[in-house]
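Minutes, project check-in

Agenda point 3 was the complex the collaborators sent over. CS summarized: two entities, 604 residues total, and the question is how they sit relative to each other. Sequences were read into the notes so everyone works from the same version.
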Amino acid sequence: MDSLLLKKRYRPDLWAVFSWAVLGLVLGVLVYTLATLVVQSLPAWREMGAGLLLKNDWFFRHGRFGAAGMVYGTIVVGLLALALALPLALGAAIWMAEYLAPRSRWGVKVLIESLAAVPSVVYGLLGVLILRRWMGEWLAPFGAWSGDTLLTGGVLLAIMILPTLTTLTEDALQNVSQRQRAAARGLGLTRGEVVWSVILRQAMPGVLAASLLGLGRALGETIAVYLVIGRMDNQLPERLFSGTALVQPAQTLTSKLGGSELYIALGDPVHWGAMMALCLILLGITGLCAGASLFLNRLWTTNS
Amino acid sequence: MCANFGFPNVEESHSLIRPSWWCFALLMAFLLPIFASVATAVDVLRVQGSTTVNSVVADALEILQAEKGLSYRIDTQGGSSGGLYAIGRGAVEVGMSSAGFSEQDRARFPERDLRALTIGYDALALIVSADVWQGGVRSLTAQEMRGIYEGRIRNWSEVGGSDQRIVFFNKEPGRGTWKSFVRWLYGSENAAPPVNHPEVGSNSETRNKVIGTRGALSQLSAAWVDGEQVFALGIRDAAGEIVFPSQTNLADGSYPLTRPLNLLISGPPEGKVQLLIEFLQGPRGAELIRKHGYLPLSAE
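CS then shared the predicted structure for the full assembly.
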């Protein structure tokens, strides 16, 4: 009996070995991906310089690669989605966290989180079938040629990130301690006043973190945007916030990468490099969002 | 037996049901089927490429599956250039292309012995939405089409229609449709001027967007035209003669915008690949090709 126990003790901890191996694998994949993107995009950076990022001039048949129009499309679509979704998400979250009985809150939360799990291609198809047509009709008086516009992409993305945004915002509101609520109520504040001047203020970093996470998701979304944005190159208006640009087709980094151009680029180092550079730029933008979200989340947890 | 080395004697009475072991086993249970499916995928005939060729090949594969027990996988990721890329990289056994096959394409993948087998021909139509057709536009000249492509003609009233903006959906520049189109207008792909238009990908996407947009114009395989929601314009020459993309005009060569439907293979055809090619080049294949609105080889 005693010897059996002893044998066991010197067996290597398989679980630790395995988890280290997996961690190494994950980090390895990450580093390998980044290194590949950087190395393969080098020919394009060498050829185009900073113009690859700053110039609005993408005609691959003529060897001209300037992705500013796509960067603009990506950022505007993401910000539009956030601007449209955040007020709705905040409203729904306040209702769930502050006014709903705990038991029904759980039910609503399950419903919303299952909405967040709907695959993006489903949203995309709904966008093509319904949203595209509606937007085409509504926007026609404003000069839209069809339902494929920057705004359609923004609205569709807003619908897509709404569940994620709502449930994360609700978590942030829930995390404000009950004592604060009780104290504020004890001071004679009404329920609405408590929400406005205590809960929202306390939960602000959490709400911001949730927004950034939602923004990151919107920026990286491909299929749904691909189907409704129109995929028109070199759409960069003179002014940053231009109404006419909103009702015209556009191109985002993801809709370009989702198209068939990737297949044409293969074999031409500069063109392929430019496509890889688009990946890098996209990675940079979404990484920035995720990083800012993490930073705010930490700020928030250390403060409360 | 083993010495104790002075470590405290820790009881581990339930080591067999340690949670870590169960987690490990569960993980393996998930991973093993994935490894297994990767290993068995070798036996499947993989086909990828042009949505135009796909409609015929998908039907042929289905018949071969029922009759000869052929297992296959087919998709249209990337269109014709996706098909060329996939066969060039050895990701599939058969690529589908409606873009023609040039020495340049062959030179892109020197390590492979790429060859193209034509199974039929397709007429490329200039398609418009119902409101344009009803507005009275029935044909365009190559000159007018160049004007629209380059953005100099922006309204249907300039080419004999009603006052409606022309919304031109350009096929993605990697698509076989796009290549045939610019070869017709400009002689070669590289001679096409730099333009910006909203882009469309697969044939069904093109069709749906044209149906759903007022004043729409695009390029599409004539086989997808129905004459109810999507209409094919004729091509008018300098003498005012109008030729529509019909099967007869395709067969006698009077319609200018045609292209071959190709299967791309690597090396001489063998086994499953040969089975597919023999079927498509045989009489039943020809019947299938005609059924989808294309012109089979034998009718030349």
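Noted in discussion: The radius of gyration of chain A is 24 Å.
Follow-up: revisit at the next meeting once the mutant set is ready.
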